[in-house]
Amino acid sequence: MTAKTLWFASNNIGKINELNSILQTKGYNVKSMLDLNSPLEINETGTSFIENAILKATTLAKLVNGPVIADDSGLEILALNNFPGINSARWKGEMSYHDAMLDILEQMEGETNRAAVFISAIAYVDFDHKITKAFIGKLEGEITTEIKGNDGFGYDQIFYVPVVHATLGELSLADKNKISHHNSAIEQLLTFLQEQN
């Protein structure tokens, strides 16, 4: 069976690898903005994860042939009024994610309510068939009191998932993919795609 190509509107190698590892097993070949001949930066001006995901997918779909998916995801921490939310990648400025995690742990010092949720909005845009859809995946967890683990990306190492008794940063990519917010949204996308065939 020939793999179907899906374009992914992202320059984030961590997200690209994670998505590729999920979709390859489903018969899809993922191409990303890193495969374009010239760099593409998309200004995320939406006010929600879904708006930003659709904006990214639509922008790339104008440049390539075939369906495009895009992810906009982030961390919402209840005690910090859902900060950093849709600005999860941007609020830190030039800080590394390691320093951003330390900053969040400092903001959370002494806080007893450590509930948090990772949210992923996956948009699917297929101009040929006039389809624009979005799917939401969530993963509930807690903010740790220290950085734990050597794997993952973003805020994975301070996001503890009670059902697996570990942070996302302590899980292998395969184990993370079984429970992640990205996987939840992608499973919904795959169900939709199967219904289109």
TrEMBL record:
What InterPro entries does this protein's entry cite? dITP/XTP_pyrophosphatase, ITPase-like_fam, RdgB/HAM1
The note describing how and how many cofactors are bound reads: Binds 1 Mg(2+) ion per subunit.
Binding, Mg(2+): 72
Active site at which residues? Answer: 72 (proton acceptor)
Per its record, the protein catalyses: dITP + H2O = dIMP + diphosphate + H(+); XTP + H2O = XMP + diphosphate + H(+); ITP + H2O = IMP + diphosphate + H(+)
Please provide the record's keywords in A-Z order. Answer: Hydrolase, Magnesium, Metal-binding, Nucleotide metabolism, Nucleotide-binding
E.C. no: 3.6.1.66
Which positions in this protein are listed as binding substrate? Answer: 10-15, 73, 153-156, 176
Which cofactors go with this protein?
Answer: Mg(2+)
Looking up Pfam families in the UniProt record yields: Ham1p_like
Q: How does it assemble?
A: Homodimer.
In the record, the note on similarity to other proteins reads:
Belongs to the HAM1 NTPase family.
- Any idea what job this protein has? Pyrophosphatase that catalyzes the hydrolysis of nucleoside triphosphates to their monophosphate derivatives, with a high preference for the non-canonical purine nucleotides XTP (xanthosine triphosphate), dITP (deoxyinosine triphosphate) and ITP. Seems to function as a house-cleaning enzyme that removes non-canonical purine nucleotides from the nucleotide pool, thus preventing their incorporation into DNA/RNA and avoiding chromosomal lesions.
Question: What is the name attached to this protein's record?
Answer: dITP/XTP pyrophosphatase
